[in-house]
């Protein structure tokens, strides 16, 4: 007997709920840092007490944004993808991309408010006197990508090899 012999196709009459009630609950509007007990328990173990104390407010702030404003913006941006304009109205090769305002606001949060692009490279980001510890950077990215993953692609390219 092998595993394939015990597999049966799922049928509508097998008594198992496979509808929308079977999905995980919607976490929209919740603080993703507050509800993630595992993350909250691990960060004090992997960050120095002073770093954790200095950054805990940022984890909480980003967790609130991820479950709130970032989630809203990501849903809007998904309905309005970037538009490539290969030529201007006269047919000249110009190649520019139009982004919806929701995408630009998410960029502002990621690269303006939290400075994801600079976390590994310079001091002063989020109030630390040196580049953020890798654990802190990845915890913040983890919170952010729960709402919007696409913006982190370029940020991941900016991580130095030593981290």
Structure characterization notes:
It is a single chain. With 163 residues, the protein is mainly alpha-helical. It has one domain. It has seven helices and two strands; from the N terminus they run ααααββααα.
Would you summarize the structure shown here?
By secondary structure, the chain is mainly alpha-helical. The protein is built from seven helices and two strands. It has one domain.
Descriptive labels:
7 helices, flat, 7% strand, 163 residues, mainly alpha, two-stranded antiparallel sheet
Range of strand content:
5-15%
Oligomeric category: single chain
Distance between the termini: 48 Å
Q: Going across the major beta sheet, what is the strand order?
A: 1-2
Main beta sheet strand tally, sense and closure? 2 strands, antiparallel
**What gyration radius follows from the Cα positions, in whole Å?**
21 Å
Secondary-structure class: mainly alpha
Shape descriptor reads: flat
Write the layout of secondary structure elements.
Blueprint: H1 3-6, H2 37-46, H3 49-67, H4 69-79, E1 83-87, E2 93-98, H5 101-113, H6 134-145, H7 152-156
Antiparallel strand pairs: 1-2
Helix pairs in contact: 3-4, 3-6, 4-5
